[in-house]
Write a structure and sequence with these properties.
The structure holds two protein chains of two kinds. Chain A is mostly helical. Chain A is built from nine helices and no strands. Chain B folds into two domains: about 45 residues; about 110 residues, Rieske [2Fe-2S] iron-sulphur domain (Rieske Iron-sulfur Protein, 3-layer Sandwich), CATH 2.102.10.10. In chain B, the strands form three sheets. Chain B has a three-stranded antiparallel beta sheet, with no helix packed on it. Classes of the chains: A mainly alpha, B alpha+beta.
């Protein structure tokens, strides 16, 4: 049945080459943990991507209950965590996943560094990777404010102090990021918009570029 | 193992195994999120409580609008809702009707139509209902106005939620 549906579509729009292009690629022996177990270090990039997918999915579901508003934000988080079925699990996935992404990404960076994979001709991909690193850190930072509890509030106060310490434009930057003179209603909506729309958009674009370049250039050779 | 050829190649076996394990892991990941999202349809209804409408002495034989306020638990907020209930006495019986038109949900008024002063009238599509809520044949509504269950405690009328009549 499935085969026939697939054939019907494939007959008309010829999708086989599309997924073949994505799925069929060589996995060299030196990156295959089945051949050398130590090659598991090559999994960290994929694991970073996998946890990012979990973050995006769980985040999409969390926004069904969350509101970025100073009166209701904390109450809505408490509600979704304690009253909604599996709320603790879904929020837990997002909360712990945020740390896992950063750990995995760091291990991936170390692997690339110590195998020298960033060297010619892959310098541009290293640069894109570092941009992804910054975007992920910014996602962690903006997401931290959203539960609107004490920890969130005071962590953001520290963030803004750091921003304000930038020479010359510090104060302007602080107002821009806080959306006003205090950490409040406008800071929360700003961080929410950045966390949920701007940064994920940037992240998906950068990840696409990262992956296209990997496929173009292939995986770097053995040590 | 039988000697028959089952025509499952090594590649096919691996495909099935990997798809099975992958599907299981994917389901384990997505299931909590789906259950999380569909929670509202699985939460128990809070209906059943009756709320104070007005003292019985306010009622006459003529339907009058009374405002009904009640609280609804809405996620992390408690909303105070306000509905209008048209109530009157039919002999000793209290009749309390919901003014939501059963056609498309506009609000009806008693005596809203000059030509039919003894009927409920919906201005949207000229639907009409008799004083007991029965829909007038030939007008758009297909069922009577919904009716509240009532209870009288210490001379005060309490109403539940509107229910379809019959």
């Amino acid at each position: 049945m499935l085969q026939r549906i697939y054939d019907w579509i494939d007959d008309r729009i010829d999708i086989t080459p599309i997924w073949r292009d994505i799925a069929d690629h060589e996995v060299p022996e030196h990156v295959n943990p089945g051949h050398h177990f130590s090659a598991f270090v090559y999994c960290f990039g994929g694991l970073t991507f996998f946890t990012v997918v979990i973050q995006i999915l769980s985040g999409m579901f969390l926004t069904m209950y969350y509101v970025p508003d100073i009166v209701n934000a904390h109450a809505s988080v408490e509600y979704l965590q304690s009253e909604v079925a599996f709320g603790m699990i879904v929020r837990g996935m997002h909360h712990w996943g945020a740390s896992v992404v950063i750990v995995m990404m760091f291990l991936h960076t170390l692997r690339v560094f110590f195998t020298g994979s960033y060297k010619k001709p892959r310098e541009i991909n290293w640069v894109v990777g570092v941009l992804i690193f910054f975007v992920i850190l910014a996602l962690g930072l903006t997401g931290y404010l959203l539960p609107w509890d004490m920890k969130a509030y005071f962590a953001t106060q520290v963030t803004l102090e750091i921003v304000a310490s930038v020479p010359v434009v510090g104060d302007t930057l602080e107002t821009l990021i806080a959306g006003g003179e205090v950490i409040g209603a406008q800071t929360l909506t700003r961080f929410f918009a950045i966390h949920v729309f701007f940064l994920p958009g940037a992240l998906l674009g950068l990840i696409a570029v990262h992956f296209i370049m990997i496929r173009r250039q292939g995986i770097s050779g053995p040590l | 193992m039988s000697e028959k050829n089952h025509n499952v190649s090594r590649r096919q076996f691996l495909t099935y195994t990997l798809m099975g394990v992958g599907g299981f892991m994917g389901a384990a990941m997505v299931m909590p999120m789906v259950r999380f999202a569909v929670d509202p349809i699985l939460q128990a209804d809070a209906a059943g409580d009756k709320n104070e409408l007005t003292p019985l002495s306010d009622l006459t034989e003529e339907p009058q609008p009374f405002s009904l306020t009640y609280e609804v638990e809405d996620g992390w907020v408690t909303q105070t809702m306000e509905d209008t209930v048209w109530a009157y006495l039919s002999g000793d019986e209290v009749i309390a009707l919901s003014p939501t038109c059963t056609h498309l949900g506009c609000t009806v008024n008693f005596g809203g139509d000059e030509n039919n002063p003894e009927q409920f009238f919906c201005p949207c599509h000229f639907g009409r209902f008799e004083i007991d809520g029965t829909n007038v044949p030939g007008t758009p509504p297909t069922e009577p106005l919904h009716r509240y269950d009532t209870e009288i405690r210490d001379g005060v009328i309490y109403v539940g939620r509107p229910q379809p009549q019959q």
